Amino acid sequence: MWLRIAERPWLFAALIVLALALLPVAVWLDLKNLSDNALSTQARTLNGMFNDIRGYYSANVVGRVQGFEGDSVAAHNYEDVPGAIPIPATLSLELGNVIAGRGVEDISYRFVSDFPFANRAPHNLDGFETKALADFRGTRDPEQVATEITGSLFERQIRMAVPVMLGQACVSCHNVHPESPKRDWQVGDVRGIQAITVHQPIARNLFSFKYLFMYFAGAGAFGIAFAGLQWRQANAFRHMNRELEDANGFLAAVSMKISKYLSPQIYKSIFSGEKDVVISTERKKLTIFFSDIKDFTETAEHLQPEELTSLLNEYFTEMSTIAHEHGATVDKFIGDAILAFFGDPETRGAREDANACLDMAIAMQRRMVELKSEWRRRGIEKPFEVRMGINTGYCNVGNFGSADRMDYTIIGAEANLAARLQHVAEPGGIVISYETWAHVQDRVRVHRLDPITLKGISGEIVPYAVEGIHDAPSQSAETINETGNGLSLFLDITKLDGEARRRAETVLEKALGAVRRKGEA
């Protein structure tokens, strides 16, 4: 049942609203019950008191007057005087005894004074009564009321006292009565106090709140059940979270492995949901980059397979890093060749894509100069020399293949032209098409090469070789990077320590002498 409630939030909300609505109902029912019980108890108590007072009055007042033929008088010792009736003070004292005689524990009545008649036992006043009597005599206010509330956690008690003040008739009687303890009473003097004590045991009314107890019992049961349901759901969620964490960890590991086979842009677009993994292509204007290692087969013959693999992987890693920095989409590695393009899945416009591709190619060639120096130091006699071609034009780009095996790539004559352009480039050089040159002509120097023909394209195509590849503005006097026919020099003075500097001087002097001797010859 709890699961059905948890699965229906509106039903749970309705139960909460119903529970909140029942709380004031339960409180009202209990207050009504408590009020009924209190009123019933007070009614029974007062009814018994009135019956006792009526009986006392009938026996000690009416009966005595009716049973005496002479004149009746009021006296404090009326029982000793035939036909006498009790004076008000005596009546109050004896009424207190009548009430106390009923054995009522919750209500008591006392009429006491510190000036009792001579033939009566003295009244024992407690602290509350003594203080109240002193306060009443100090203020002489007939409306003054003294109150004291005491008790413990399970019972409460209230005591209330009012002054008993003498009128003219009372003064006349007390000042001449032979047994009066005082003969100078005046009108308005406080003769004593009248005190009523009401005792209320709280524990006795504990079960008067049965509806509230029932409500809290139901709320407690509901809360326990709800807490149990929450605990069960929390355990289920923890179990699900652990499974999801394991699944996410597995998927993350798999996705990281898959990312090695895809370009960062394609990986991002697929896993972000921007692209669907379905066979689809579209025609876009791209700038295509194609590079190839000159005489790779000949170089491979002079290297062991393990060394060749390490060298080739290092080359691909360096070139891929540069491509990623410039925003290229690396299509594939074809043997020792690299095919990359700009314009999909992200593009900054044909002009910006062409400039970005050219910047990437220049950065790659500059990095190749550093790598060749490093490889020579490691004993590679013929390090790689790379030729590069760039073309701009429309291609079909997208997912090609079958429903079971797809490849994200480009096809079209423009891609073939980029491959052909790299064939006519010099080692370490970059050749671009006219379409690419039109976008980058304001920032590079080029010279025309002999026209070429390409199968599938009518007419001749004029390639342009990029000049000043290594004349970078960032190159300072502390860095020398020169290449040419029979010349390959890269020198970073900032990295030379004392021993390396002396060795560089020796090598350069030796090279300069050799060049001069060759010129003189």
UniProtKB/TrEMBL annotation:
<dbReference type="Pfam" id="PF11845">
    <property type="entry name" value="Tll0287-like"/>
</dbReference>
<dbReference type="InterPro" id="IPR050697">
    <property type="entry name" value="Adenylyl/Guanylyl_Cyclase_3/4"/>
</dbReference>
<keyword id="KW-0812">Transmembrane</keyword>
<dbReference type="InterPro" id="IPR001054">
    <property type="entry name" value="A/G_cyclase"/>
</dbReference>
<dbReference type="GO" id="GO:0035556">
    <property type="term" value="P:intracellular signal transduction"/>
</dbReference>
<protein>
    <submittedName>
        <fullName>Adenylate/guanylate cyclase domain-containing protein</fullName>
    </submittedName>
</protein>
<dbReference type="GO" id="GO:0006171">
    <property type="term" value="P:cAMP biosynthetic process"/>
</dbReference>
<feature type="domain" description="Guanylate cyclase">
    <location>
        <begin position="287"/>
        <end position="422"/>
    </location>
</feature>
<dbReference type="InterPro" id="IPR021796">
    <property type="entry name" value="Tll0287-like_dom"/>
</dbReference>
<dbReference type="GO" id="GO:0004016">
    <property type="term" value="F:adenylate cyclase activity"/>
</dbReference>
<keyword id="KW-0472">Membrane</keyword>
<feature type="transmembrane region" description="Helical">
    <location>
        <begin position="212"/>
        <end position="231"/>
    </location>
</feature>
<dbReference type="InterPro" id="IPR029787">
    <property type="entry name" value="Nucleotide_cyclase"/>
</dbReference>
<feature type="transmembrane region" description="Helical">
    <location>
        <begin position="12"/>
        <end position="31"/>
    </location>
</feature>
<dbReference type="Pfam" id="PF00211">
    <property type="entry name" value="Guanylate_cyc"/>
</dbReference>
<keyword id="KW-1133">Transmembrane helix</keyword>
